[in-house]
Amino acid sequence: MNRIDYPEIDESVYRHQCDNGLDVFIIQKPGYSKKFVTYTTKYGSMDDHFRVDGEAFNVPDGIAHFLEHKMFEKEEGDVFNLFSKHGASANAFTSYDRTSYLFSTTESFEKNLALLMNMVEQPYFTEETVAREVGIINEEIKMYQDNPGYKLYFETLNQMYHNLPVKTDIAGTEDSISQITSDHLFLCHRTFYHPSNMVLILVGDFDVDPLIEYIDGHQGERNVDGRPEIERILPEEPRDIVKQRSVLEMDVEETRVMLGFKHHQDSTDASERLRRDLSMMFALDMVFGEQSEYFYELMEKGLIDDSFSFSHIEEAAFSHVLFAANTEETEAFTGEIRRISDAVKDSGFFTEEKLTVQKREIIGDYLSSLNSPEYIANQYTKYYLDGYDLYRLPEIIDEITINEVEKHFIDVMDSRYMVECILKPHE
């Protein structure tokens, strides 16, 4: 076990690796009554084509999310009820690249920790329960299909991406999940839920040595042999977009538009991706944030309201920027976003003074968030799996230069790779 101290932010982390390969991080929060735990596998919706020890497999879309649902169901019943019985609140989620199981509690911590580990590590699937789950998730998919925001988002992704499974709903499709069998589930659990592909993160006030000893003992009793050689296979994705513009009609009251700027993901270095993500966050906020002159300009022209949002998504396999707003003036909105993006590129708009303000704000928000066990556990998990260290974030932020901010904005905000998706009421 290693202890890592971060004196600048007064935090300490204990890192331990079990003999079976499981990485464990204990993040001490002295005096906190709540304890928060995440148990995460590096396995998400994009992992539908892979090799294990040289053998290739293709599995149906949506299986990672399906598997997440099924892990709460055991022969003796629903594990959610057991967490509640022990005073814990439990949940889980699946993203493009990971599936995370979690609980928070102020009592019966060891019972809940054992419950979490056993639940995640011990699969229980039958053809009958799998068939039943197909019906449940089908209803979930239909519900999302009727959600305007969901429809707009995935149509925008489908306009940007030719081949990458990012354009496919994390839950899959009605057709794909109907193909899932218990054999598929056991294969994916055996492959991706191996301890060497997982991380356990615990946040709270702990007696560290006995806790490590307890986790070690539990993992030792599993008798897990070997470590699978996993190779994730993703299709080639061109820089070009699929379709520049589309218009959808639904039973909605307001017209909504989403713009997507597709960027070619050409970096395999985790620190480079983090720097670009931070740089784009700074740049977008400088240009379109609520303190920007352009934000007020768009408001005064009646092109945006409180629904206006923007985000930069930076993942290992893809990268893009999204804008969204409720507006009847879709053509004018799209034109203004393009005009503003071009105008700031050669105007000296990006300055050290603005960057300094941005850095102060994000560091302030970051330090405040470190009071939340939930934030720490979830973000530490994400940063760890992405190859970063959450507690080193202030150092990286401090290193970002205004030249990086400007360069990444120019690279990413290229209107040749912009798509526009409009969702409007039925005529």
The CATH class of the largest domain: Alpha Beta
Q: What is the residue-mean pLDDT, rounded to a whole number?
A: 95
Briefly note the structural class of the backbone: alpha+beta
User: What does the radius of gyration come to?
Assistant: 23 Å
Indicate the overall shape.
globular
Summarize the biggest pleated sheet: 7 strands, mixed
> How many E-type strands?
17
Distance between the termini: 64 Å
Residue share in helices? 40-55%
Strands ordered across the widest β-sheet: 1-2-3-11-4-10-9
Query: Percent of residues in beta strands?
Result: 15-25%
CATH superfamily of the largest domain: Metalloenzyme, LuxS/M16 peptidase-like
Within the CATH hierarchy, at the fold level, what is the topology of the largest domain? Cytochrome Bc1 Complex, Chain A, domain 1
Unreliable runs, pLDDT <50, ≥5 residues?
A: none
Q: Return the CATH architecture of the largest domain.
A: 2-Layer Sandwich
Number of domains: 2
Count of alpha/pi helices? 15
Domain Peptidase M16 C-terminal: 180-357
GO molecular function: metal ion binding
Protein name: Pitrilysin family protein
Domain Peptidase M16 N-terminal: 61-173
